[in-house]
Amino acid sequence: MTLSEYIDSIKDRRIAVIGIGVSNEPLTELLLKSGCHVTACDRRSPAEMGAEGKKLLDMGAELKLGEDYLEGLDQDIIFRTPGLMPFDPHLEAAKARGSIITSEMEVFMALCPCPIIAVTGSDGKTTTSTIISELLKASGYKVHLGGNIGHPLLCETGEIGQEDIVVLELSSFQLHSMNCCPDVAVITNLSPNHLDKHKDFQDYMDAKLSIFEKQQPCHRLVLNLDDSHSEYYALHAKSSISYFTDRGEVDNGAVCSEGLIYRISGGQRRPVMRASEIKLPGEHNLLNYLAAFAAVEGRVEDEVCARVAKTFAGVEHRLEQVRVLHGVTYINDSIGTSPTRTSAGLHALKTKPIVIAGGYDKHLSFDGLGDELCLLSKRVFLTGATAEKIRAAILASKYYKDSGLQVEVIDDFKEAVLAAASSAGKGDVVLLSPACAAFDRFKNFMERGKYFKEIVMELK
To answer: What is the pLDDT of residue 99?
Structure first.
């Protein structure tokens, strides 16, 4: 079915779109332009929606705004925003009344005319997805990169050819209860995350399982051999499995052994490059490349893999060097939205940084991060909703007493950045790596990262 055929099939249905954000705004406008009856539901007030709300009204939408935006949902088809879980009582009640609950991403995956490589995991999925995209482009494919990485693709389905390849980054929010079957599925790793949204850790694990649950033996699942949760996923897989690791041996996939990267197919090793030649720093990026190399097996030659790894400079907001001023290096790692991501960033740097951390509370433990900050940072400035929780974890660390680490809580984000900059001297690194999501103050980690860069670029 094409996109236009799908739209035609739902024209006579009452449709609700929940959350008029990055993924759903283009969808809402497409539905309205196609003559569909759409109710746009959003937590924001009419004043907060502003021109965005007026535009939708002018296009013929019915608006349901404010704190009660989820009350009385009874439309035939309901497109949920990724952050609203399917087990929300309002959605469950609507489903019981006969509503179809879906999402922009689920419909896209059903309509996509070309192969899909889908990536999920707790950490590394943005970088891994982007690396896969770069590898495919370097091999001559027309690639469409989207999903949780910030670019919705449904409205562009008509521009995607059968010979193209789509690379999707998928979050647990998007995957939860989704019916999908990508040609290649990648799970980078798993650690506690988003426990403010999921019922429990098992629910979070099972949401990731949806990325490959519908696969068949002709499809491929790429798993992290060094992650203890991979065994659980392997038991549920019908697809063929490739592994990546920097500690073990596999029959199919990619490994790093004694400093050399190999791709392996049917037990046969092929040397690709030295791990030290990868341009992106850190062991986590080595693992991201191993996952990507395994994912594009059969599509991208070894020499192309090596060439991209030696030249690709990285993803915006992921250990992104913003500038060097008066000998101080400023690094934007706003995509570090969990303690494990921030820990990976700390390990990737050769200099102990002055760290700016804190943000939205996802109800994760910061105990391990407290140890890492004591061991691997020079000074810490905390801001946002989790500032006191991270501070408590640092003070409780067994390494704190001997670390001499100075910890300061500053409520205002800009003031925290300026204080970190003022404390830095020649040779220092100032690192924004919040270990938390951005929703306490920003729309997303991208907005937070851009604001950090604006502040840094204004320094004199």
So the answer is: 97
| pLDDT digit string, tens, across residues 133-164 | 999 999 999 999 998 876 889 999 999 999 99
Q: What is the pLDDT of residue 196?
A: 63
Residue-level pLDDT at 322: 93
Q: Which amino acid is at 452?
A: F
Q: Which residue, chain included where needed, has tokens 């990267």? A: 261
Closest residue by Cα to residue 173 from 210, 144, 227, 212? 210
Distance CA 95, CA 74 (A): 8
Q: What is the pLDDT of residue 233?
A: 96
How far apart (Å, rounded) are the C-alpha atoms in residues 306 and 449?
Answer: 30
Residues 265-295 pLDDT 10s: 999 999 999 999 998 888 889 999 999 999 9
Contacts 24+ apart (CB under 8 A), 248-252: 250/225, 252/294, 252/297
Are the C-beta atoms of residues 304 and 138 closer than 8 Å to each other? yes
205 has a pLDDT exceeding 80: yes
Q: Could you give the maximum distance between any two Cα atoms of the chain, in Å?
A: 69
| pLDDT for res 195 | 60
Written as one string, the DSSP assignment of 178-247 is -----SEEEE----S--TTTSSSHHHHHHHHHTTTTT--TTSEEEEETTSTTHHHHHHH--SEEEEEESS
Nearest residue to 315 via CA among 340, 358, 285: 285
Query: 134 is written with which tokens?
Result: 């770069």
C-alpha torsion sign, points 239, 240, 246, 250: positive
Q: How far apart are CA 20 and CA 17, in angstroms?
A: 7
Side by side, which strands form the sheet with 220-224?
A: 143-147, 165-169, 116-120, 184-187, 220-224, 240-245, 253-257, 260-265, 268-274
H-state helical runs in 267-386: 283-295, 302-311, 339-348, 367-376
197 has a pLDDT exceeding 70:
no
- Distance from first CA to last CA of the chain, Å, rounded? 56
Q: What is the 3-state secondary structure (H, E, C) of 363-424?
A: CCCCHHHHHHHHHHCCEEEECCCCHHHHHHHHHHCCCHHHHCCEEEECCCHHHHHHHHHHHC
- What average pLDDT does range 25-35 have in this prediction? 93
